[in-house]
Amino acid sequence: MAGRLEGKRVLVTQAEDYMGPATIELFTEEGAEVIADNSDLTETGRCQALIAQTGDIDVLVANLASPNFTGIQVTDLADEDWHCTFDMMVHPLHGLCQAVVPQMIARQAGKIVVYGSATALKGMPTVTAYSAARAAQAGYIRSLGVEVAKHNVQANLIAQNYVENPVYYPQKLREKESFQKSLARQVPLGRLATAREDALFALFLASNESDFFVGQSIPFSGGWTQ
Amino acid sequence: MAGRLEGKRVLVTQAEDYMGPATIELFTEEGAEVIADNSDLTETGRCQALIAQTGDIDVLVANLASPNFTGIQVTDLADEDWHCTFDMMVHPLHGLCQAVVPQMIARQAGKIVVYGSATALKGMPTVTAYSAARAAQAGYIRSLGVEVAKHNVQANLIAQNYVENPVYYPQKLREKESFQKSLARQVPLGRLATAREDALFALFLASNESDFFVGQSIPFSGGWTQ
Amino acid sequence: MAGRLEGKRVLVTQAEDYMGPATIELFTEEGAEVIADNSDLTETGRCQALIAQTGDIDVLVANLASPNFTGIQVTDLADEDWHCTFDMMVHPLHGLCQAVVPQMIARQAGKIVVYGSATALKGMPTVTAYSAARAAQAGYIRSLGVEVAKHNVQANLIAQNYVENPVYYPQKLREKESFQKSLARQVPLGRLATAREDALFALFLASNESDFFVGQSIPFSGGWTQ
Amino acid sequence: MAGRLEGKRVLVTQAEDYMGPATIELFTEEGAEVIADNSDLTETGRCQALIAQTGDIDVLVANLASPNFTGIQVTDLADEDWHCTFDMMVHPLHGLCQAVVPQMIARQAGKIVVYGSATALKGMPTVTAYSAARAAQAGYIRSLGVEVAKHNVQANLIAQNYVENPVYYPQKLREKESFQKSLARQVPLGRLATAREDALFALFLASNESDFFVGQSIPFSGGWTQ
Fold this sequence. Notes:
Four copies of one chain form a homotetramer. The first copy, chain A, is of the alpha/beta class and 226 residues long. Chain A has a single domain (9-165, 193-220), classed as NAD(P)-binding Rossmann-like Domain (Rossmann fold), CATH 3.40.50. Chain A contains seven helices and six strands; from the N terminus they run E-H-E-H-E-H-E-H-E-H-H-H-E. A six-stranded parallel sheet of chain A has the order 2-1-3-4-5-6, with helices on both faces. The two termini of chain A are 30 Å apart. Chains in contact: A-B, A-C, A-D, B-C, B-D, C-D. Chains A and B meet through helix 3 and helix 4 of A and helix 3 and helix 4 of B.
């Protein structure tokens, strides 16, 4: 490989979930020293403590996922499920960023890469809680990105959908004809992305190649949203 | 006036704050029966109770505002201020909508109009908490709008900035030359909107004239964002 | 009606096509003096001459439509069809605006309302020429709007799709089950807009109620795009 | 380097202008065989002929630039300058794509990367012609991208601004204090991008790493637009 992250220390959160495994594999191949964390970031003070114990990091990969509660109409959504999306995806994002930004400002360099969702950008039925929380992430990164840009710290977000994932797209679902038809209609590219493809975009955003990107939420969805 | 809300019952929340007074004045002129609420919507169960006690409403005006904490860098933001924006603007929005949508679906008609913020759409330094919460509102309305559209219920959001308001733009600030220069640079129109102008857009979204609008966040900012 | 255009002189182009008839009917009801033009705006000098002969106008309704050539793949698109979209929709828009802006600047007031297309904002197969030309309109209005805002001239565009129209949606097509299924899938609201509903939005943008809108392209598509 | 374009044949148009030199240098380093063309693409039939004579190409880099006529108000814009932007940037883009897409569909693989402009996405005074033409490019790529996606052909556009370039930002301008102040205000990152940084993004979009991107116009502007 090309060593595009040679000499970089990278923290990946929720390392066994969502985009964690594919990210760790690729980033390690590219020369990064990856710190993989699996602790519960919803605990009070945990984000702050994690950054403190990790020490200097060049790249924070905020990989935060919650159930998406797809299929539950807004009228049936339980209060705890509503709050779950914010507790798992929004508050820890702020906790992590607030804790890591000072060291990045001190070094006048740093990258924050968020695995977010395209549902932050485009409406979809029966995912109101998830959409709201994912949009909060996008809005946060937009303003944070502008705020920290002058310190040469770049924060950006991947607004993804239709990426292979055993939780959101279990094999059984993928084999259904109805799913395949829906995929052909919804996604111009006509297939799911592999996790590797998604990690390749995160690699771009984590590397020095993306220094001019500021607070962006970039669709990664095979054309579902552009 | 034209009676554009003749025969409509409209609930306006946080009625004494933000866009409440201008909305109530205009909507009343246009023939609406306005129920003005000033209760604290952050209390558990309060949104549900408010809708229950109000009875049938044709239009919900979700007028929810919190301090915006402008000028506080992300590294200095207090935890309680972070949560304040979500507690005042995001969770009550869901509470109100979840409570009111069933009656609107039952009647196959209804409007939800949210006074949101253009900071949901465009990054700005030192307003990370506010931007995140306002973006959560926009993301919520985007998906809610799509979900309830088939029931002829329309939910839309005004993504506003630079609207006259004694809290965000006190007279003292407005008289400063530095503020006027900044306004000329940031806002192509070169002035603040009046609250009345803003309420006129809410009137459009609350009336039958906007039946084809679904889950949109429409900039209202004199060109600051488009 | 409410006289929302009382005392206004309004020029509507291509008056017998597309959104012309519905606009003229509604705007006249609202008190406007409507000048309906049906001349061929692709002729050299015609836009300039039209504005000159019309005299003072408060509102320009740029109603410009061409065939959309739907169903023709990019590889099969004839050169003359490609150019047709620009010749009918883009160059006359500039011709009209360039001719009318000086009198609006002189009066420090004026509105330009463009009936555009949501295909300017969202990709769709087999409409490349049409999308490009409609996007050119949106981009033009975005920058024109910013440029003329300080003179209290507002230029905005309706980014519409799925509006009743005998050319784009002939009755025969509308009766097909396949069309109705496609409509249910593509348009969250589940129906076409009436031309009247669309004209009501144009009325808002043409009236004094929209003074704070600057260079915007606002989706009007039942949720197809937001 | 990493050979990220190993074995690829790449056509770069207008090779001595705009982003041509930086692209050719980087892409060659990355293993591509670069065909650099400098012919006048406004000539009738030239795009078709160029693709025919070039033979199989894996990546088309549509590097098309015209004067931007900054500073000329819409009322003063000469007709020939208006048409110049479309003749140099829009019609050749279609000519090139129409000519190259059939071979890419035949191979079920191909990339089209357009160096476009962020003025396609955000309004700016005194660049109406340029904005319109650049927006036409973005709208074209949006629909073309959706149309060809199912053939595994990806078309995307870099919506750039504030990139070093001797024509748009001559050294003399860059040394002015007024320019530096404007830069600090307009661009959150506070500096121009180097052409190399821009080419690195084009490299990503030209390589196999971007297979899941469909018809997108991605801001590259240091935060000027997001």
